Amino acid sequence: MSTPKFVETIISLGSNIEKERHLPEAIRLLRRHRKIDVRKVSRFFESDPVGGPEDSPEFFNAAVVACTDLSPLELRAELRHIEDVLGRVRTDDKNAPRTIDLDVVYYGDLVVSFDDWQLPDPAASAEPHVAIPIADVAPTWVDPVSGRTAYDMMLGVDAATEAVRPVMSITLAQPYESRGPDEFEHSGDVYAPKLEAIVRAQLLEIGENPDREGLVRTPLRVAKAMDFLTNGYSTSLSEVVNNAVFDAEDADEMVLIKDIEFYSMCEHHMLPFFGKAAVAYIPQGKIIGLSKVARVVDLFARRLQVQERLTNQVADAIEEILDPLGVGVVIEGQHLCMMMRGVQKQDSSTVTSAMRGNFKSEARTRSEFIDLTRG
Length: 375
Ligand code: ZN
Prior knowledge:
This protein is an alpha+beta fold and 375 residues long. The chain has helices at 19-32, 72-85, 123-126, 128-137, 150-156, 168-171, 181-184, 193-205, 218-229, 237-241, 290-301, 307-322, 336-339, 358-361, 363-374; strands at 7-15, 36-41, 45-47, 59-68, 101-107, 112-114, 117-119, 164-166, 245-248, 255-266, 272-282, 285-288, 304-305, 326-335, 350-357. The chain has 15 helices and 15 strands. The strands form four sheets. Strands 1, 2, 3, 4, 5 and 8 form a six-stranded antiparallel sheet that branches. Helix 4 (128-137) packs antiparallel against helix 5 (150-156), helix 8 crosses helix 9 and helix 11 (290-301) packs across helix 12 (307-322). The structure holds zinc ion.
């Protein structure tokens, strides 16, 4: 199942602020992490708040099995980062409402105590909202301290301390009942339950049979593809640029990166448009790694877009990162919504441009740029 250097871990998740949005988003961010390979996700469970302020909202809880080559402390730091991305504000009150809470509960069979943290997390054997999702996702997981399976541990927690129930609407039926560990095994093939249900409904609407062989896994594939094609929404500019801005006091010549391939989706039809971008700037003391410019284009292309806005966003981003004397962006794109629907000639393309600073104010700079993009 995993290469030796990877360790299987179990991560527990909880949210009680906008939980319908934050819990799936946390799972998306985990799946997208380059060093965390999410293997299985439990169903979602709803639990009453315990020990928090009065009238705290209810929680959604879940658990995932993931493989990683991060150390326990590195993994914990990455989870903290995801919590920060999702707007978690830490307070001294461990029961305060939170957008998202991500905890490493098991790290292989490691048993260890850090200053403020233990592995396994004692909550796995004491708290129903932790134990039940873990038993759901990995019933045969063996707790290295007690030697008991997750399923046994779930039966052992004092269920009277909090009510935990599966969330039907989000997990596509599958009534929750106590079953043996063998029957607990589910496919682990659910990626984004809500989105997959929508794609399935869409297949039915167009007269297809979503249960025929070729389509059975289509909702899953579409969800994954959609997630990839729109990952610009959950990536920040600073994450993309990540320390690749360098001082260059004497650089004052135009820097041009052209033939940057991009793939995006039009926001009117959700059909692809794609083509090439050229990005140029005249530095004012700062330059950026060339490959980062292509990543900035991707950051804005991987969303639902119109080509004009994409062009402007790339120009604004370069301006924001480098504060250069000027920026020019030219994008040439072909839109499948036009080509496939026969609205326009198939070989037509759309050209958009955005000019900032001296690319806007000086015709010579602008025409030098345009000439270079053609050359
Ligand atoms: Zn369109």
